[in-house]
């Protein structure tokens, strides 16, 4: 529980662009006290809770007020005055990134990066992958550029998901929410029985339905997301295996290495050297 600003000790502002700020709110009140206008793109993905998004009327543009729900993805372009948050200091969970630069200008010109008002989307590109990208601490400009390219790839996957269709409704909506929460649960702290209860199913029924829809059981789905996050941290950062294991909730680097080798066929060190 709390608000975390990912540590960005150096902002590498290359020809591609830069990540200006990134952070995560976990069951806490979001810190956007007043309407703001920024010179960068803002990406927000809400994984739990509800809130509001507002734009004041400006010139010929009418004002906007829309509800934010769990699973909502929001993209605010540079120069747009806006506010988002919760009502009455209610809590939510959110991952956010502030970024800009020539790479993202190119994506915007091509229609791949577009303003998006808050709306659920399923499937959302990997939350574990996004968290790995934005929480990475690049050791040099080359690593920072790799992180920007990975973020651009995530945004391209988001646009592809928008084209493919909207979020599911009815009985599969609860399973979609569960999948989003599992993909974001990189430290494996979420109790699967509690998650089943939230969907209104017994654990056995939840496990069967989830596997039928997503192709694997809930625990395996989460493990896949955690290992994908480990792979991205190996490729994009200079973090040691012990620190990666700690961040992703593995008991130690040997536990991570065993799971990683079983999934990717090589140990983490060899994977990093070949990345």
From TrEMBL:
Any one GO MF annotation of this record: DNA-binding transcription factor activity
Entry's transmembrane regions: none
Keyword field contains Lyase: no
SMART domains membership: HTH_ARAC
InterPro entries in UniProt: AraC-bd, AraC_XylS_family_regulators, Homeodomain-like_sf, HTH-like, HTH_AraC
The organism's place on the tree of life at top rank: Bacteria
PROSITE patterns: HTH_ARAC_FAMILY_2 (PS01124)
Keyword DNA-binding: yes
Keyword set, alphabetical order: DNA-binding, Transcription, Transcription regulation
Pfam families with a match to the protein in the record: AraC_binding, HTH_18
Domain HTH araC/xylS-type: 176-274
Name listed for the protein in its UniProt record: AraC-like DNA-binding protein
Naturally occurring in which organism (per UniProt): Microlunatus kandeliicorticis
């Amino acid at each position: 529980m709390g608000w975390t600003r990912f540590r960005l000790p150096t902002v590498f502002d290359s020809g591609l662009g830069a990540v200006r700020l990134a952070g995560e709110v976990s069951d806490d009140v979001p810190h956007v006290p007043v309407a703001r206008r920024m010179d960068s793109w803002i990406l927000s993905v809400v994984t739990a809770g509800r809130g509001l998004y507002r734009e004041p009327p400006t010139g010929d543009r009418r004002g906007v007020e829309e509800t934010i729900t769990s699973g909502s993805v929001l993209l605010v372009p540079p120069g747009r005055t806006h506010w988002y948050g919760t009502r009455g200091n209610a809590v939510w969970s959110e991952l956010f990134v502030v970024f800009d630069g020539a790479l993202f200008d190119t994506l915007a010109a091509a229609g791949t990066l577009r303003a998006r008002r808050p709306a659920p989307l399923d499937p959302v590109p990997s939350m574990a992958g996004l968290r790995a990208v934005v929480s990475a601490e690049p050791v040099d400009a080359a690593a920072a550029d790799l992180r920007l390219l990975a973020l651009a790839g995530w945004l391209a996957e988001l646009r592809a998901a928008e084209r493919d269709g909207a979020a599911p409704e009815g009985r599969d909506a609860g399973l979609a929410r569960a999948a989003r929460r599992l993909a974001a649960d990189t430290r494996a702290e979420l109790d699967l029985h509690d998650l089943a209860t939230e969907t209104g199913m017994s654990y056995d029924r939840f496990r069967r339905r989830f596997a039928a829809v997503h192709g694997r059981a809930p625990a395996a789905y989460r493990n896949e997301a955690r290992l994908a996050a480990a792979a991205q941290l190996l490729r994009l950062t200079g973090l040691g295996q012990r620190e990666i294991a700690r961040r992703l909730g593995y008991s130690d680097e040997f536990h991570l290495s065993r799971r990683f080798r079983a999934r990717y066929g090589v140990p983490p060190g060899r994977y990093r050297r070949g990345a």
